[in-house]
Amino acid sequence: MKNIDQLADELGLKNDEYTPYGNHIGKLDFKNILKRHKHSSQGKYIDVTAITPTPLGEGKTTTTIGLIQALGKLNKKVTGAIRQPSSGPTFNIKGSAGGGGLAHCVPLSEFSLGLTGDFDAITNAHNLGMVALTSRLQHEFNYSDKALHLKHLKRLDIDPRNITVKWAIDLCAQSLREIIIGFGDKTDGFMLQSGFQISVSSELMAILSIATSLKDMREGIAKMIVAYSKDNTPITTKDLEVDGAMAALLSKAIAPNLLQTLEGQPLLVHCGPFANIALGQSSIIADQVGLKLADYHVTESGFGADIGFEKFWNIKCRISKLIPDCIVLVVTIRALKMHGGGPPVIPGKPLADEYTHKNLSLLEQGMENLWAHIDIIEQSGLSTVVCINHFNTDYAEEINYVEHALENSDKSVAVSKHFEQGGDGAIRLAEAVIDACNKEQNFKFLYPESISVEEKIKIIATNVYGAKEISYSPAANEKLKHINQDKELKNFQVCMAKTPLSLSDNPIKKGRPENWRLFIRDILIYAGAGLLVPVTGSLKLMPGTASDPAFRHIDIDTESGDIRGLF
Fold first, then answer.
1. pTM above 0.90, yes or no
2. Was domain 118-249 assigned CATH 3.30.1510.10?
3. CATH class for domain 453-536?
C-alpha cells in the first residue's frame, strides 16, 4: 500500500487538506479542497449499479474498484467513492463489501472494522437524541410545570404512543426490533414500547449523505422529528435542545475518508449502505471532491437499478445538481439463472448445480430482469454500459449468449475479469465507459418535484418497479393526509424502502413480475433530510443475523495483530 502522504500527494492535495489516521488512511478537509478548486473543471461522473441481485450480491463494489483500476491502467487520473460498510453485514452474511479478489479496497481490516469512527458517531448522535427524548418524557411525567420551569424546561406534552424513532445499533439484531423500556420505579425511566433500527437506517445517515457543509448538516439535524405531542405537534431535536450536541458528535464524520484500491488509486469512503431502507449512496461531498480532483470519478449505488440507481437519479442528483456521464449496469450469469427460475440461492449453503453447470434455458428466461433494469436506466436519458461480471463457474457459451443478445439490441456491453485479473481484466470495460462518457447525454428526472407525493410514488412503482396497482395501509393513509396538509412536507423527496431481492415488494418473486400490487405499509417522515420514506411490503429497518454468520470465522492473530476471516 502507498503511504497516505504519497497517496495525497499524487491526488494533488496540500498538507493542510488531509489528516492522517495511521499510515494508510486520511480524513479530507473537503471545505478547503473545494474552495481551492472552485473554478477547476469537473471530471466525468460514472455511477455503478446492478440488476436484481442474489442474496450473495453480484460484485458491484468489486466492479467499481476494478473499473477504477482499469482506468488507472489507461493512464487516466481517476478517483472512486464507495460506501463504508455497516458492521451488520460485515459480521453477518454479506461481508464488508470492500470488493474482492484483485479488485478491492485496502487496508481491508480498518475499512471493515469501524474505519475512522463515522458510524460510531452516527450511532451515538442518534442515541443521544433518544436519551433526550426518553429523559424528557420521564421528567414531564414526574414533575409539575412549576418544577419543570425551575429546571429551565417547558412541557412538550410528548405522546408516548407516537414516538417516530427507535434506538440505533450497527448490528443485525432481530431480538431488539420490538422491546419494552423503562421497567423499574420512577427513577428508571418512563415505561413504553420501543425498539432498535440498524444505524445506517438512521435519518442522520441520510442527512450526512446529502449535506454539503457543516451548516447544512447542523440545520438538518435540528429539523429531525423524533415524536409528536398529544395534540399532534411535531417534537424535534431542537425542541429537546439536543441538536447542537448531536451535530458536535458528527463534526468529524462529515469529512470523507481517503483509502486506496489494491493497485493504488484513491478511494473516498463515506456514508452508508442499505439502499433498500436508506439512501444507499456515498456522500455528495465525496463525489464533489472526487470530480474536482480527477478526470474520471466512479461512484456506486446500493443494490439494483430499481432501488439504488433510482435514488441516485431522482434524489442525489437532484440535490447535488451533478449530472452523470455514464451508468454501468453489473450483471452475472448466476443472477440471470436465478431470475430464470433457478433454485433459491441461500447464503452459507453450496450453490445448486444449475449455477455451476451450463444451463442456457434458465439464462434465456432470466434475461427479462436485465432488460427491466436497462429500461429503468434508459428513462433517465443516460448512456448505459452493461458489465458482465465474470465468475469462474461461467461457461463461454453462456457469456456469449448474453453478450450477443445485448449487441443485437445495440447495447454497449463488456465482459470483465477484474476479480481474477485486477485492472488488467477490466480494460475492455474501462474503454467502453470512456466511449459512453463522450456521448451526448439527455438526462432527465423521472418526475417533476411539483407533483403530489401519491403521484411520485405511483410513477416510481409503475415506471421503475413495474407494479400495476398500489395500496396503502390505514396507517400509511393517515400519514398521507398529514403530509398533504403540510406545505413543507409534501414537497419532500420520496425515498422508497423496498426489498432488494425482487423488482416487486415480495422477495420471492424473481424475473420481471407482472400484474402485481405494491403495498405501502407506512411512510416515515425524515424532516431533517427532507425525505419521505414509504415502507413497502414486510421490509424491516432492523435486519436479522443468519444461522451461519461471518463473525464465527473472524479472529485475530495474537502474535502479529492481523485480523483474519474478513471478506
1. yes
2. yes
3. alpha beta
